[in-house]
Specification:
The chain has 187 residues and is an all-alpha fold. The chain has eleven helices and no strands. It is elongated.
Length: 187
C-alpha cells in the first residue's frame, strides 16, 4: 500500500487528539502504512514530549514490523533522550526474535551504559527466543558476555538455567556443585 507523506503526517498529528478512538485509528493507519512511515514515525517518537503519543507511535512501529527494526536500532544508538530510548526499546522488544541479534550487538557499546541498559531490558522482555544468543555472548566473554549474563539472570528460571549451563557444564562442574539441569524448588 502506497501512502503519501502528507497522510502520514496527518495521522501523526491525530495522535495529539484527546479522542482515544482517533488515536488508536491513527496508530493503526500508521502501522499499516508500512516502510514509508518508519522514518517519520521514529522522528515523531524522538521529538514528542507526550508519553501517550509516544506509546501510540511505538505501537505503530511494532505494527510495521521488520522494516522498522534497523532504523529503530540506528535511532536508539543516535538519540540520547531516555524517554525516546524507553519507547524505542519497548517497540524492539515487541518485535521479538527478529530484534535479538541487533539488541545483543548493543550490549557492549562503548561509553553508553544507558543504551546497554535499554537493550538489556528489551532482551529480557523478549525472553526465551533470546536465550541462545545471550548464552553465546556469555561464552564469548568480554563486556557483551558480562551484560548478557546479567540479562539471563533477569529472565529468572529459563535464563538462569542457560547461565548455569555456561558456567557449570556437567563435564566441568566445580567440586560440590550439582548440575542436574534444574534448580531445586524453593520451599
Amino acid at each position: 500500500m502506497m501512502v503519501e507523506q502528507n497522510e502520514i503526517q496527518e495521522w501523526i498529528g491525530q495522535l495529539r487528539s484527546d479522542d482515544m478512538d482517533q488515536q488508536r485509528e491513527a496508530s493503526r493507519r500508521l502501522g499499516s502504512a508500512g516502510e514509508g512511515a518508519v522514518a517519520p514515525v521514529i522522528e515523531a517518537l524522538a521529538t514528542s514530549a507526550d508519553n501517550d503519543q509516544r506509546w501510540y507511535l511505538a505501537v505503530a512501529l511494532v505494527r510495521i514490523g521488520r522494516p522498522a527494526l534497523d532504523p529503530l536500532i540506528s535511532a536508539l544508538r543516535e538519540r540520547r533522550d531516555p524517554e525516546f530510548r524507553r519507547y524505542a526499546a519497548a517497540a524492539l522488544a515487541e518485535l521479538g526474535e527478529d530484534a535479538v541479534d541487533p539488541l545483543v550487538g548493543l550490549l557492549d557499546v562503548e561509553g553508553d551504559t544507558e543504551l546497554r541498559g535499554f537493550a538489556a531490558q528489551a532482551l529480557t522482555r523478549i525472553g526465551e527466543p533470546a536465550i541462545d544468543r545471550l548464552r553465546e555472548a556469555v561464552e564469548a566473554g568480554g563486556t557483551r558476555g558480562a551484560v548478557a549474563g546479567l540479562v539471563l539472570w533477569q529472565m529468572e528460571e529459563p535464563g538462569v538455567q542457560a547461565l548455569i549451563g555456561v558456567c557449570c557444564p556437567e563435564d566441568k562442574a566445580a567440586p560440590g556443585v550439582e548440575t542436574s539441569g534444574s534448580i531445586p524448588p524453593q520451599t
